[in-house]
Each structure stands twice: as C-alpha cells, then as structure tokens.
Queue: 2 jobs
Job 1
Amino acid sequence: MDRATFACSTAFFRDYSSSSQGAFCLPGGHVDFIEKVESFTYSDFFRDYLIPNHPCIFSAKFTEDWGSRRNWVTWDGKPNFDHLLQKFGDAVVPVANCDVKEYNSNPKEQLPFKEYINYWKEYIKNGYHSSRGCLYLKDWHLSRAFPEQDVYTTPVYFSSDWLNEYWDAIAVDDYRFVYMGPKGSWTPFHADVFRSYSWSANICGRKKWLLYPAGQEEYLKDHHGNLPFDVTAPSLQDRSVYPRYNQSQPPVEIVQEAGEIVFIPSGWHHQVYNLEDTISINHNWVNGCNVAIMWCFLQDELAAVQREINEWKDPMDDWHLQCQLIMKSCTGIDYKEFYNFLKVIAENRISVLENGLDDEASAKNTPKAAISTLGMLHAVFDLKRTVKVLTSLSANEDFKKLDLTSLSPPPEALLHHLKAAIDTALL
C-alpha cells in the first residue's frame, strides 16, 4: 500500500483503546531499524509504531535529500560553521549550560549566533573545555525565523501534527526546533511537552539515547516523588533516596548515527548525549493516536496544582481559575485552550470532509493539504478521536466550573457538529 492509497486503509476504523498506549517491555531492548524509504508506508508506521507507541529508527536514506544534510555539513561530516554563519550569523539563539543544574534543567541565555559559533570553535580547539562550561544551543525555532531556507521536509510519517497545526493557526508558537552542540553536551532526564511524540533527525554527528517506556519513570522517583536529573548518577543506587530504583527496567539504549531519525513514543522519558559535534532537527507533535495521553497529562498536572494550593481553596473565590492559571504557566496550556486546540483540529477536518480541497490549498504546505495527503478516512479517524476526548473534557467537573461563555461554539454544539460530520462521511 503506498502513501496515496492509505486513505483506503481500514486500520483507521479499528477500535484502539487508550490502554494500547501504556507501558510495555521491549524484548532485549530491541528497537526496529527502518532501512528503505520505498518499502515503508505511512500505514506501516501508523500500525506498528504510532498506535502501539513503540520507538523506531529511520535510516539516513530518509533524510538524504534535505538541504541541511547537503549544506550544513563538511566533506568529513563535521558542522559547516562557515555556511551556518553565512546563513544565520545575525540570529539570536537560546543556549543552555550543560555543566550547571538549575532546578531540574540547565539554565539558558540568549546569545548571538556568531558568538555561539565562535565559542564552539574555541571549545573544540581547547580539547572540549571552556571556562564558560559546555554550552548547548537548544530549542531554536529556526524554521519560524527563517522560513525561506531550504533546511528539511517533514517526513510524511510525522505529518499528522496537531500541535504545530494549532500553534501555526494562532501564530503564537511552534514545536519545531534545531539543536546544535559540541561533543559532551547533553539533555537531562525528561519527557516531552504535553507527553507528545517527538522525532529527532541528526544532520551530522551521533547521539546516545537512554529511553524508559511510559510508566517506568515511577520507579525512578525519589522518596519525595521527584524524578532524577541524571539517570546515570550513582545516587540512584541509594535506596534511602530512590526506594524503588531496583524495580526499574534498564533503559533502552540507542546510538543514533548521522542522517538517522529517532522516533520517541508518547510519554517515554529519556536522556540524550551528543557523542560528537552534532546538529539535529527536532519536532514535538500530538495527533489522534496520542491526544488522549495529552488529556490525561493535563488532568494529572491540574490535580498536582490543586494539591499544592489546596490550603487556599476556601478563602480564595477564584481558586479554580487560579489553578488553571498556574497549570498554564507550568505546562503552556489550560483547559479552555485545550478546548480551542481540539476545536481548530476538528474544524479543519470538517472543512475538508464537507467542502473538499481546492487546488490552491492542496498545492501548499497547509494542514488541509496534509489531511488530503493522508486521506479522508484519516480525517474521520481524527474526528472520532477528538469526539472521545472532547466528550471527556465536557464532562470534567473542573472544566464545568470555568466560565465557558467565551467558548464558541459551545462544547455541546461542537460535539454535535463532529458527530454529524462523521456520520455523513461514513454514509
């Protein structure tokens, strides 16, 4: 089955339960390696990795036509500093200090890109040492800042991307990033924003990943319920601090080569090291396969906030609203914005189902074009998953306590529209 005919796949109509997204054990820590572009379809990825929430690695053949693979790398596989300075020299970029712990991450600062590249060159020249520490350029929104640059094309497997579809629509943010760092730079233990999927493609260099299946992180918490900063630290062996560590599985370890793409499943915690001077492209994304996990994450986050400020519940008239505000400051979204997120995704699919796709829209890199590429049955699948989560949100007591008069259309009307669109599409 090729990508175009995937629309005819009946896989979308299987009743996958949310429990299929839970933790599981990979035999021997094995992670599938996808070698050939021509023999691996979106349907294969959907069935074997998205729905069961399994990691995999795509070979360098999947990225060989990217502009960044051609132009950002020297003949011997190193970062092409001269080219990067020519294209992006005037940019200002976020840089983290890997040698300093600030709460449970590394402190960040904004630096001119020119200054960072000069630092990187000196760092290499000095045997990978600097009085400034090991600096890692992280979470750079390069695609948003330089949309005209030929950097990469999102593989079709990752094109059902609700996070970036929504944040592009409201023109506020995106979850497309570039990372650049010297050998020895690293990212502490974490799970991705909203418990999203992520994909990471090495433009050059090599990475080592330590992955823990969803649920395994519970065994790695200390006696206060906090996750470790570094899962390789000897202190994890201290049972008085980490009482359940000996019950955890060993991490799944991946060494990612230049050009390869790693798919990280939803809710999997991980820690990442650059084994060489490395540049990577990274996306976070949510779709119909894991939106229920995002909703569960938001409920857990709100419950944590409510526990934290429970003593203020009685004297505070707007306690429920304050909980939402705190949750949004911590996670980036609250319940009302989550409703609007679901609404934008649903209305885009309803528009395609009801009105089709004009030639101009299909020729552009737009959400509607992506829906068209994956097929009308994919749009129906998305709507069915949205109905399930929206039904749960609408019935949620914390959601009902908010002032919902600003939501347009009201949740009940949107649900009715979604169900009618699904019924019409399946006639």
Note: The longest helix spans residues 335-355.
Job 2
Amino acid sequence: QLKDCLPGLKSDSVGVQRMPGDVGERVALVAARDIREREVVMTIPEKLAVTSVDAETHDVVGPLAAECSELTALTLWLVAERARGAASVHAALLSTLPEATLSPLLWEETELMGLLAGSPVLAEARVRRDAMRQQWSALEPRLRADLNRFPSDIFSERTFYRAFSVVVAHACFLPSANCFALLPLASSMGRTGNNNGCDLDFDGQTNAVVVTAARPYRSGSELLLNDGRPNGELLLATGGLQDGNTSDYLDWPAALLPADKYFMLKSQVLDTLGFGQRENFPVYADRMPIQLLAYLRLSRLADPALLAKVSFEKDVELSQMNEYEILQILMGDCRERLAAYSKSYEEDVKIAQDPDLRPKERLAVKLRLGEKRIINATMEAVRRRLAPIRGIPTKSGTLQDPNSDLKEIFDTIENLPKAPLRLLEGFVSWARGEQDPDWGKKPGQGRGQVRK
C-alpha cells in the first residue's frame, strides 16, 4: 500500500515476506530480485520523510515540539497523528509502525529485576527509564494547561511512553542531513551488526534518502540496515536483539589505583594518550582490545623503569609478574560477573528451549546467554594465557616455557589508534550510537581488537 500511495517512492527492488521473529511472526523487507553490490534498492523523497521540522510545524504540537529534542518532538508528532487515525495524511506510514516495542524501558520494575538480574542492561534500563519519565514530567504541566489542544486521554503518560519506544526504535539517523527521520519502508527494516546489510543516508543531489546494498543480495533475501550496536543496546532501543551479532560486546572497566604511589605519573602518561583515570573497553566473544591489556598492565606496574615499554598499539608484555597479576584481575572480573546472575549458563540454556516463554522472557534469556558466552570465552582466553605463565599442562599435554611468546594464543593482533573512540550514550545512542545534545556522554571504547 505504501508503494502504491506514496508518489516518488522508488522501491521496485523491495518485496515483503513473513518471517519468524523473537516474538511470533514479523514482516520483513526482502529483495524482490537479485541485487548487485552498491546498487540503490530504495529511494525516498525528502517530502516523504518525517523529521523534527514536521513536528515543529505541526498544527497541534508544533510550539511544544520546538522546545524539545528531536526524538521527543517526533514522539509528540506521532501521538498527535495517531489520534487523527485514517484522517492523517501519514496514515499509510503509521499503519506500518507498532503501537509499542518490547524495550525494557517499558517493563515493570519486578520484570526488570526478575529477568535482567546480573546483566549490565538492568542498570542502564533504569537510567534511561528515569530519563524518559523526567521528560514526561517536564511536558505534563504544559499539556495539562491546555486540555482543549492536548486531551488527557490522547496525550497521556502511557501513550507518550509507548510512542517514544516506537520513535527510538524506528527513527533512522541520516548522517549527511544530521537529523533523525521516520521513513516509509526503511524505518521498518531489520538491523544487522555483521556489516552484511544496507547503508542509509540522505543524498543532497537527488534530495532523497537512499538505501544502498553493501553486498550482493539474492532474490528473497532479507534486506537489513547495518547497525553496529551490541545486543544490550539493541534491546534497549528496539525491543529486539540479533542472533549471531558479531558487534555484540560487554563493556569492561579498568581504572588506576588511587593508593598507587605512581598514581599521578601514570595519570599523566594516560592523559597524553587520550585516556582517563577510569575507562571502559569493549570485550567481544572472540577478541578483546589491546588497549584493555595495556591499561591494566600500566595500572598494576610497580617498576617505573618499565613505563617506556608500555604500548597501546602492540601486545607488549612488561614482566611476567605484571602479566600474571592483570590476568588474575581479568579472571576475577569474569567470575564476579557470572556470580551476579541468578541462574547459571546451563539453566538459561534449558529456559531458552521452553516453547511457552513469554516474549519478554525469551528476549531476556537470549540476552543473558549472549552476555555469558562473552564472559565464558574471556575466561577461557585468560586461562590459555595463564597456562604458560603458571607452567601448567596445556591441551597438548606438555608444559610451556613461562617466558615463551604468547602471540600463538592470541591469533591475530590488530593495531589500534592511541585513544579509544568515545561512544556517546543517552537516547541518541539507542538510535545510532551518536550524540543527542539533550543527553550526556560517557567514555567509550575503541574498536581495535586482539583475537582471543
């Protein structure tokens, strides 16, 4: 219907198909024919894209939306247009959007505690839920002051929260235009963190949003948008997560010891490299950053004469004692993380096999299993790395030289820039991992890694 009723929308290469999802069936956009790499599969004229400009010029919510962030403005627009039903000029687009998502943002506190205990997503969900509620608290007096314009049965707290979850999940960020947009068809595309999907951006020459295939597609294959967020972010933002997401990782903290007599010296060294006294690094199931190892080595270094050996670009061991200490720290972190969960990995595997799980339960157990796979893989990598230092038997049955080169255990080393990229959080990170001026930042993670 969208393809037929929206003039200028070019999507001849796109079809629709029902596919199994995390919760029942879902409608997926698929290739209607074979598609070549870098071929444009969809063109959406600017006039069909709904942005904060449309919200700010809306006849009902315009003045209020003009004072809000982009995502909040789009939420007010969505509430107002939904209230018009079939009379809305955007009825076709609205009909393709869900009433709400399964984001933990909308879960009850008992559900969060029962399903996400031990997961770092629990604390982040509470922070973002509180921020959303504060946004509503700021809007509510303005809405209640003009009930003729903003009827309480339409502009209610529940309606706002549900609409906000939809906007965060479906608004696409357009880098070239530096804005968010709700787009016909494209807003409903699935996401992939495996870099095997499509790229989306605004083309100033054609004055349209263009979706381009980043790889060849066979007819019938699902068309996905490239999205490099980990599963925890995807669940918070979209109410879903991706199986086999190669971009999935856990933040791993590292910090200097305040009682260290070389604390100031080490702080100065880190500052010149672009690091702070506390940092988070991304740890994946099959790799961890060289920067994490380097940071921990520096933080536990007892001999200042070895400072010259510290490298944030190569996997350079400082001393056997230092290496042993940081690996024991990593092992302890892994054990502590696993102990925080209320159920073991094996118990969660059994739970995931239950066909009668409720949607939230299924999403939560998939998230927990993914997190535990990362932790277990990290523990195994640390054990392998500890083996030659301890001089214990390896799987081959032989003792390795404690001073042997450990590169054979870490399959490949990929050079990193000297400072990690800063991942910007808040509501914008839910939609694209970049900055929304209405929300704060926190230190982020570099993308360079070393294989486990």
Note: The first strand starts at residue 14 and ends at 20.
